[in-house]
Every structure is written in C-alpha cells, then in structure tokens.
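Issue 218. Parser rejects a valid record. Input:
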Amino acid sequence: MYVVFVVVAGVVLFTVMAVALGHGDLLEEESQVVAGPELPERSLRPSDLENIRFAVVLRGYRMDQVDGVIERLEAELEWRDRRIAELEDGVAATDPPSTGRARPSW
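Output the parser choked on:
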C-alpha cells in the first residue's frame, strides 16, 4: 500500500511540474515581439507615455523595451533642462539692473 501511495504522489508531482514548466502544453505560447514600443520622433508629450505598452513575458515586461524608453526619456529630460537653463540665463542677462527702488504696483 505504501508503494502505491509513493507512485501516485510521484505521478502527481511530475504532472504539476510538467504543467508549471510548460511541457504539458497547457500554457499559452509566449508572443515573440522583436520591436519595442513606438515613440514618435518629435518631442515626447505626456500622452505618448500614457499610451505606451510593453510586451509581457514570463517574468514581467521586456527589459530591452523598458530600457530603451528610459534612455530616451533621460536624454530628452536632460536636453530640456539644459534648454531651460539657457533661456533663464538669457532672461537674466536682459533684465535691467536693479536701482534699489521699489517697483510701483499699479
């Protein structure tokens, strides 16, 4: 009787492992996505990020797609920060010097 129990337990364990690893053909086929998310060539807008979708794989999202989007955002934010600093420096250079008098409030 003990031998039958061990054999049945082994068969159940084997079946569970086969299904979990996908050898039982009960899991869906993983879709093969080669290209990453499509980002426009122009400056990014918030709606571009709201609409982005990554391919889902067994352990989450495809890392190469996520890394590509993060690199693009990093470069664009860095460019915008430099441009804002340039514009602020330009405005500061064209402001008239302060004479120490209070500005009238109309």
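Fixed in the parser; the record now loads. The helical segments are 2-21, 46-50, 63-94.
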